[in-house]
């Protein structure tokens, strides 16, 4: 995230949680899980950051929703477009897409300069 740091990121997570709660109710519990996994995997050394795996979570959710919808394209049974599992998978995918990108790395260690400066990025 460009500015504002962690406070702005948490406001983004709360906004996504509120949106998913309004649309899907208890499926909103997936948002804090995604936020925790984003934080945890970003801090772990040698692990890929959220920029590499959150799109795959969204892709998997949409594929699962599509497959569940294709099982019974008409009607409102369990395996249909309007069934609970297909809707839950689509909402998890939406939450993964809307999750704010946050840089959770701390400041550079003493004696080490950042690789780019703000002036170079302009």
Helix-strand layout with pairing:
Blueprint: H1 5-24, H2 30-43, H3 50-71, H4 84-98, H5 118-121
Helix pairs in contact: 1-2, 1-4, 3-4
Describe this protein's structure:
- Helix content is 61%, strand content 0%.
- By secondary structure, it is mainly α.
- The model has no long low-confidence stretch (mean pLDDT 76).
Describe the structure in brief:
It is built from five helices and no strands. The protein is an all-alpha fold and 122 residues long.
Properties at a glance:
mainly alpha
The major sheet is characterized as: none
The helix fraction, in percent, is 55-70%
Task: Give Rg in angstroms.
Answer: 18 Å
Low-confidence stretches: none
Alpha-carbon distance between the termini? 16 Å
- The global form is elongated
What's the domain count? 1
Q: What value does the average pLDDT take? A: 76
Order of helices and strands: HHHHH
- What is the number of helical segments per DSSP (H or I, 4+ residues)? 5
Beta-strand percent range: under 5%
Structural class: mainly alpha
Q: What's the β-strand tally?
A: 0
């Amino acid at each position: 995230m460009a500015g504002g740091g962690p406070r702005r990121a948490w406001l983004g997570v709360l906004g996504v949680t509120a949106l998913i709660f309004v649309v899907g109710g208890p499926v909103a519990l997936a948002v804090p899980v995604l936020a925790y996994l984003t934080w945890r995997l970003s801090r772990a050394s040698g692990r890929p950051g959220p920029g590499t795996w959150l799109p795959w979570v969204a892709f998997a959710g949409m594929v699962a929703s599509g497959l569940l919808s294709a099982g019974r394209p008409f009607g409102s049974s369990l395996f249909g477009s309007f069934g609970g599992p297909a809707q839950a998978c689509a909402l998890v995918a939406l939450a993964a897409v809307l999750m704010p990108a946050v840089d959770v790395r701390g400041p550079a260690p003493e004696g080490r300069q950042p690789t780019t400066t703000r002036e170079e990025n302009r």
